[in-house]
Design a protein that fits this description.
With about 70 residues, the protein is mainly α. It has one domain. It is about 45% helix and about 0% strand. α1 packs across α2. The protein binds adenosine-5'-diphosphate and magnesium ion. The site of adenosine-5'-diphosphate has 13 residues, from α2. Magnesium ion binds next to α2.
Amino acid sequence: MVTTGGTFVGRQREMAELQAALQEAMAGHGRVVMLVGEPGAGKTRTSEELAALAQQLGAAVLWGRCPE
Ligand SMILES: Nc1ncnc2c1ncn2[C@@H]1O[C@H](COP(=O)(O)OP(=O)(O)O)[C@@H](O)[C@H]1O
Ligand SMILES: [Mg+2]
């Protein structure tokens, strides 16, 4: 699997679900996916892993941030 480069552990179920959504989106069936969890749970990191994979597959990746 393509990753951001650093060690990324676990999250197989989440990544499988996100990758399935990515493949559907790239086939023209986009949808919204939300990652929810406590601060530090790994939402940003998981998003970065998905973004790296999406970029590798040629998808346009747009990244937004929101201050607290
Ligand atoms: N699955 C993971 N494997 C390795 N490190 C992780 C993983 N998930 C999160 N981390 C690390 O834990 C820290 C907090 O994760 P982060 O994605 O910033 O959390 P959140 O966005 O949910 O607040 C970061 O340093 C991140 O790189
Ligand atoms: Mg975050």
